[in-house]
Specification:
The model has no long low-confidence stretch (mean pLDDT about 90). With about 500 residues, the protein is an all-beta fold. It has four domains: about 110 residues, Immunoglobulins (Immunoglobulin-like); about 100 residues, Sandwich (Immunoglobulin-like), CATH 2.60.40; about 100 residues, Immunoglobulin-like (Sandwich), CATH 2.60.40; about 100 residues, Sandwich (Immunoglobulin-like), CATH 2.60.40.10. The longest helix is centred in the C-terminal third of the chain and has 6 residues. The chain is about 0% helix and about 45% strand.
Amino acid sequence: MHIGLPKDDEELDENGYVLHNDQNGIRVSWSARDPESDVEQYSVAIGTTQSSEFVLQYTVYGTETTEYINNIFFEPSRQADSDGNTTLYIVSVKATNGAGLESVVGQSKYIFVQKANVPGIVFDGRDLYEDASFTIDHTSIAASFYGFESEACDIISYDWAIGTTEYGTDVLTYTDYGVVMNNNTHGQAQIHTELFEDVTYFVSVRAVTGCEGEFIVSCSDGLTLDRKAPEVVFDITTDNDTIMIIQDNVIYQAGIDSLNIVGNVSDHNGMERTEWSLGTLPAIDDKHPFTSDLSSITSAVTLVPGEAVFLTARTTDKAGNTNVTSSLAVITDSTAPEIKGLECSKYVSVRKPTLMCRWETVVEDESRLGDMTISIWVETNTSDILHNHNIRASDYAYSKDLYDTLKQELNITQVSLEITVTNVVGLSKSYGRDIIVDRTPPTSAGLDVVTSTFPGEFADRHQKCQLPRRYVEVRLKETKDPETGIDYDR
């Protein structure tokens, strides 16, 4: 029975034990002779000095004379049993000839199982023995490592490599440049090299052992360059009860008990932290302190009509990039616009058919004026004279000639109008006026002569004669106009 291939020399220690460093399997070779009926099969068992079949019971391997036996487990021999004795292993073989006769058991030398090589752990980043997934440094890369062990060969040095795939070397081939070996199990490395955005780099560390050509290699889980801060996009939300509009880089909103704006945060490598605040200026939190719960701001806030507020997002991604972004100014409006000093014609007639309206100004203190429209109609007519006609915001008067309407519709006695002002969030107020259509001249019961000897001092009653010869003073009697009244100034 031989440990290894038949022509390989067994590696022995000072006690004559065979040194073996594979804890999961073993290569063994054997031989036997039978000149009469030949060997029909071999049976091999693996055990300890206490039990020859402790690890593997006798197993038939046919006529093969060498085999790698795997799927077994050796405990390192440096571990002692309950009696304090070092565990040594032994391989046994039995040969059976063609007549069915079994040979005596052949055994190997005692086997001392060494602990298998242990790959260490490689940590990305400059923090010693703390792994990082992202970096913002595009000019260098660093790593640290520990836990490499080789009981059989010892570790004499370390090399490292960098690649864009696991165990890759396309960025840096294996070298000891930049490696600091703290001891035979711990170390760190750093090198200046150009890194590119969104590329993941893997650091491989190779422990060089005392056994020629034997290395212990381990790889990190990767480090990604991320120098881009998270992106924040603010958007408005609307429902049936709230109107919002963006105009001239300002968000105008109807209602004061909620903030109908949302912020969408994105980062291609994932977010670490997102906080929100509300302030009267961008990036401050005098209206609501920074919080991770956006709904606590948007759904439970009391806004002041006409006051501008800004929603601010303070975001940090997993690489440590930070972005502070504020929304457009949000101004809430709870009241409709007002027309100040509105005056319209009280009467129109065929002789004076122009309907005129004037006003001092339109007041909108909280948001902005949207539309201003005028409608003119006659109650007895099936069609409007004017329907929602737009008035320019810069105008302070409007006139409409109604001659054709008054001439054609002889039964019209009244014309109505309505001026409506609406702001950008849909709040509106209407002003209505009724205009009398005058179709008859004033009437009088007669004319009295009231001349007196003192001009301007009229007599109380009609007189048939008078003293003055140069003038006559007269007064209309019982003058009436039921539609518009009498203009006594003319």
